[in-house]
Specification:
This protein is mainly beta. The chain has one domain: Immunoglobulin-like (Sandwich). It has no helices and eight strands. Strands 1-8-7-3-4 form a five-stranded mixed beta sheet, with no helix packed on it. A three-stranded antiparallel beta sheet has the order 2-6-5, with no helix packed on it. Strand 5 and strand 6 form a beta hairpin. The two termini are 14 Å apart. The model has no long low-confidence stretch (mean pLDDT 96).
C-alpha cells in the first residue's frame, strides 16, 4: 500500500498454532525500518484486538523517507521464534 506524510499505517498480523487456531503467543513485537535502514520503531508491543489478532498504528513522519519501508514481526511461542516481514511504500 502507498502512504504519504502524516498518514497512519495500520500494521496487522494473525498468529495461528499448528492446528490452524488463533493463539496468544508468549511474546510478539514489531520493528519498523525506513528505506535508508534507520529503525523508527524498535521492538514495540502491538495491541491485541482479540485472541491471535494484533495491530500497531504507525504515523508516517511529516517529512518521511520515500520508498519501501519494512515491518518485521517477531513472534515467540513455546520457545520457537518466527519472523514475518511485510512492507509498505511511502511517497512524500
Amino acid at each position: 500500500m502507498l502512504f504519504r506524510a502524516s498518514e497512519t499505517v495500520k500494521c496487522k498480523i494473525e498468529v495461528y498454532d499448528s492446528s490452524n487456531d488463533l493463539v496468544t503467543p508468549d511474546t510478539i513485537t514489531i520493528t519498523i525500518t525506513n528505506p535508508s535502514g534507520t529503525v523508527k520503531v524498535n521492538g514495540a508491543t502491538p495491541t491485541a484486538s482479540s485472541t491471535g489478532k494484533y495491530y500497531y498504528n504507525y504515523d508516517v513522519p511529516a517529512s518521511p523517507t520515500e520508498g519501501r519501508w519494512v515491518i518485521e514481526w517477531q513472534v515467540t511461542d513455546d520457545s520457537a521464534t518466527t519472523i514475518v516481514r511485510d512492507y509498505f511504500e511511502v511517497e512524500a
